[in-house]
Design a protein that fits this description.
Blueprint: H1 17-27, E1 36-39, H2 46-54, E2 58-63, H3 67-72, E3 89-97, E4 106-114, E5 122-128, H4 134-142, H5 144-158, H6 168-191, H7 202-210, E6 214-218, E7 223-227, H8 234-253
Parallel strand pairs: 1-2
Antiparallel strand pairs: 2-5, 3-4, 4-5, 6-7
Length: about 250
């Protein structure tokens, strides 16, 4: 997670997007990387399109439906003849479109999906500056849902929606701490877990590796941590510590 922002509950979901996006864009501006932006319909604003184009970002952003967009795909909204198949019938369309608030026309990709048992098709529009095939572009956009699922898993593992402070500023700081814990947990899960447990979720990682019973035994020249082997065997725990130690050595030599 690059950045998080706590907003009042009575503002638009894309309110103050510049304060969130601009530091991220600046961080990668001097890197020779392909940079992409995916966003839902809340981010379908011409100011954001122009900003991403100036920063040479590729983007795919969902558009809200309107009559003009539907006119471009009117030939696809006629119900197919014959018995509907169990598998949805999906067709795509790509066209140039310019809303009144846009300074130029942009490419829009439409997806029309006919599902069995449904009278009307499911239609979605995506505005983009990518020249990919329509099916590939829609698949790329839909991967945004995968990212949201990972964030939801972090919310469940860390309960970071529990912002119970009285002051808004305090809750904003608390959200940043949750985001930091989320990133640290993902780093640990991806870089320090052995192969047999690489698929652990953050919740499993918290319950089996962090929130475990232990005892500290103090000696004259050392401290000994005695941990229960019920959830994590000794050999597995030692492997995790070794991987973490190698990460420290790499950072020091780098």
């Amino acid at each position: 997670m690059e950045r998080a922002l706590l907003r009042p509950g009575n503002v638009h979901s894309a309110d103050d997007w510049r304060s969130v996006l601009e530091p991220v864009v600046k961080r990668y501006r001097d890197h020779t990387l392909e940079r992409f932006f995916r966003g839902d319909a809340a981010f379908a604003t011409p100011e954001l399109y122009e900003f991403l184009e100036e920063e040479r970002f590729c983007y795919a952003i969902r558009l809200k439906e309107n009559n003009l967009l539907h006119q471009h795909i009117a030939h696809l909204t006629t119900r197919p003849v014959g018995r509907p198949s169990v598998k949805p019938k999906v067709v795509y369309e790509s066209f140039q479109y310019q809303a009144h608030s846009w300074t130029k026309a942009r490419r829009v990709v439409a997806k029309v999906a006919w599902h069995a048992g449904e009278l009307f098709p499911r239609i979605g529009f995506i505005v983009t500056n990518l020249n990919w095939q329509a099916k590939r572009l829609v698949r790329f956009y839909n991967q945004r849902g995968t990212a949201e699922q990972w964030i939801k898993k972090g919310q469940l593992a860390l309960t970071w929606t529990r912002l119970s402070c009285h002051a808004f500023r305090d809750n904003a700081v608390r959200l940043q701490l949750f985001a930091l814990a989320y990133n640290l947990g993902n780093f640990l899960r991806r870089l320090a877990l052995p192969r047999p447990i690489q698929q652990w979720t953050l919740t499993t990682l918290r319950d089996k590796l962090i929130k475990i019973g232990g005892k500290v035994v103090r000696h004259a020249q050392s401290l000994t941590f005695q941990l229960a082997e019920v959830t994590v065997p000794r050999e597995l725990f030692a492997t995790i510590l070794h991987k973490i130690d190698r990460l420290r050595l790499v950072s020091e030599t780098g």
